[in-house]
Each structure stands twice: as structure tokens, then as C-alpha cells.
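INFO  loader      accepted 1 record
INFO  loader      residues=103
INFO  predictor   begin
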Amino acid sequence: MTSLKLGIAAIAAMVLFAFSQHRLGSIKGTVMPLDAGVRAWAESATDTLRAPILNGSYEITDAKPGAYKIIIEAKPPYRNIARDGIMVTDGQETDAGEIKLDK
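INFO  predictor   done
INFO  writer      dumping C-alpha cells
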């Protein structure tokens, strides 16, 4: 009987571990020129997130761990730009660095 209880407890622990949620992270960065960006988008295989660009800075929150493509939506005459391979780690803030927009 004791081994049955231990077996059930072990299975319950594995199920709980398998379904534990990841902690969400964030992606931050800057855009140059400071007044050229409108919005920053983060796309992954399962999510699309966005944040406004204020004074050349953005922070996209609630990002699940994984790989993202950052897209900067620009004001004319500047052009939108994308950067692949931005990695978000469990519960961490990721700095995407400075992105320069071209006309």
C-alpha cells in the first residue's frame, strides 16, 4: 500500500512539474532617430506583442520565453525595420539594443 501511495505522489509531482508555467520576460530597446519610431512589435511562433515607442525607447512586456522578431514601425519618411533572433529567457529582461532607422 505504501509503494502505491509513493507511486501516485511521484506521478502527481511529474504532472505538476510538466504543467508549471514559465515566468514572462520583456524586451526593451531604443530607436534612432528618437522621434522616428511609432510602435515596436515582437513576433514569435505563438505570440504577437506590441508597445509604443516613446522618446526613442520601448519595452514589450509579457513575453514568453523563446525567439522573437522585433519590428519597428516607423514614421515617414523612415522605413520599418525588423531584427530576428531576439531571445527571451524565463522571467528576464532582454535588451535588443539600438535600432537605427533609414529613410
